[in-house]
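JOB MANIFEST
job_type = single_chain_structure
chain_count = 1
residues = 92
[input]
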Amino acid sequence: MKLKIVSKGTAASTRVIDAATGKPIENVEFVAWHCKPDGVPSAIIAIANAAVDITTEAEQGDLDEHEPESASVEGVADLQQGGAAGTERNAS
């Protein structure tokens, strides 16, 4: 599906429609438009209550082998104080 953003330059006049049918897309939360001087423009369209159909393959196995190693207690305490584990902070 191709979407089309139509606007007269105000938030109240902005609409998102199905480009093929001309029908409005319902439950649009917001539209964000980004354009860098040296890049390709992009749009982000947030739709509330979007219906999705997700199909995936899953493997049954031991979850412990996929969990990352936990941080040491010293490292966690140091990070909570704003530093990094194993480094000294410069208070200048």
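[summary]
The first helix runs from residue 73 to 80.
Residues 71-92 have pLDDT under 50 and may be disordered.
exit_status = 0
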